[in-house]
Amino acid sequence: MSLNQDKYHTFAALLQDLRHDAASQLTVAEIRQRQVLLQQFFQEEIVPLANEESREQMFRTEISKQLRLLGVDVSFLAGASQPATIETRLKTICDRITTLIRYCEAVLGNGE
InterPro entries from the entry (predicted)? Predict the structure, then answer.
């Protein structure tokens, strides 16, 4: 497995862990902390991977956008007070994480 694939596999595993934990047991602060760690991992480990392949670059751009939107989703969750709203926000977060996982799979060639 190449270094690039290893980084994407690690990133996807972190996303899967967050999706599982967010749906079941994490506080908003813990979700925020994990989201920040994901953003840092992406910026430090994946963005520097010098691959000029336009397909991978396209997915990297989409992942970056979805990570920013995940941050917005977590902020909306933090502002929610009604149980129904909290549930909706958590579902949105899990859906966004699923999208991110699919992008990783597409880069790795698993989603084709």
Answer: PatD-like
